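BUG: 3D viewer hangs when loading the predicted structure for this chain

Environment: internal workstation, default settings.
Expected: structure renders.
Actual: progress bar stalls at 90%.

Input used:
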Amino acid sequence: MSDPALLSATALLAAYRAKTLSPVETAKACLARLDRFEPQVNAFIEVSRDAALAAATASEARWMKGEPLGPVDGVPATVKDNIPQAGSPRRNGSKTTSDAPAAEDGSTVRALRAQGAVFLGRTTMPEFGWIGHCNSPLTGVTRNPWKPDRTTGGSSGGAAAACALSIGALHLGTDGAGSIRIPASFTGVYGFKPTYGRVPTWPGSTFTVLAHHGPLTRTVADAALAMSVLSAPDARDIFAWNAPAHDYVRDLDHGVKGLRVGFSARLGYVSSLDPEVEKAARDAAKVFEELGAHVEEADPGFADPLDLIQAMWFGGAATAALSISPEARDRLDPGFRAVVDASEDMQASRFIDACSRGRAALLGAMNAFHERYDLLLTPTMPIPAFAVARDVPAGFATRGGPLAWLDWSPYCHPFNLTQQPAASCPCGFTGDGLPIGLQIVAPKMRDDRVLQASRAFESARPFRMPA
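Structure tokens produced before the viewer hung:
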């Protein structure tokens, strides 16, 4: 058999069921790839070698008896550094946080652990997830597997790098303003942000109702499998639906025939868009036509929501700062320190207004859009991956300020504000070999439609991972 680490989660489970492959063999193969590639990309803050092999051994015994714990038993997974995992420190990419191990699992870790997943380690992120790249004072720079001098994007950058390199099949990420979709686009993997509340997120995020938890995977089927597990209820989360987990695999091949699809290259306000990115996104929209959807160009009808996301982001930064002593602030990333300092001047009324009236108006515009269209397609990012160790791409015009990075990621955060399901699908490459992503957005609570549309596109244009 070829390298087991290269198999999808669904293929691994079929092999375990047939007893042609062991979870121990898979875990060892993934750890071998980690050892091979980690010095080049720096995707992990912690490697759980002994625990992973012990969990894989227990899984192997269950499969040999025909008694797997659940649908991901023996599947290798990684956990982003801001998600609690019992026995491991939750550092949030910061030198200011405690290195004491967490006492209990967060919602998504608990859901995967209960179904037998094998955790390989914890992945890197920028400090408190403040920006869409993956550099931090604690772990340094995480690099793109396609071109190591380029960023992975972030903040789930370590998860995306591990995913692209087949170091695990399921990768837990979080997304407060694009933090799953940005790195998925830059590294050419599939990233899915569920409707807010569909996946419990206990113990919550400093960025409050913006922050969704979801999977990064190499196939859409694996994301659907992960969602079928992650959507299990967790009564600890006051914002979660806490409805029974939904089977997103069952109708995954429903297709897009007959759907009404709006394609927006610029959302009506994006000023900077790389021509290669635009062409790849337009070509992807044509694929939907070939698959039987009715596609037309249509902007969603809302104004640039930069003021809304900034108000809520400053509020999240202010919350994060509550746990950081004045003396410890000198150890912060200078960029995040600037955000924290600026957040202290923001009035609470601005945050509340953005969180309530501002988001409601934006969602109202999207509700009106979805009366006419079942899906919205956009580029995920206006540019391909840029040089590492930069907060803003060289030569990219922004409006300045400590949150200038939001200008180079204009497509993602609107759908954190509206809490809609959205995914980034690999849809092509630039002339110098960097991945490009297509964003697929559906109405709230139609996570199944995003996954089905993603699966249809993947079937027509299979994804390609780094060699």
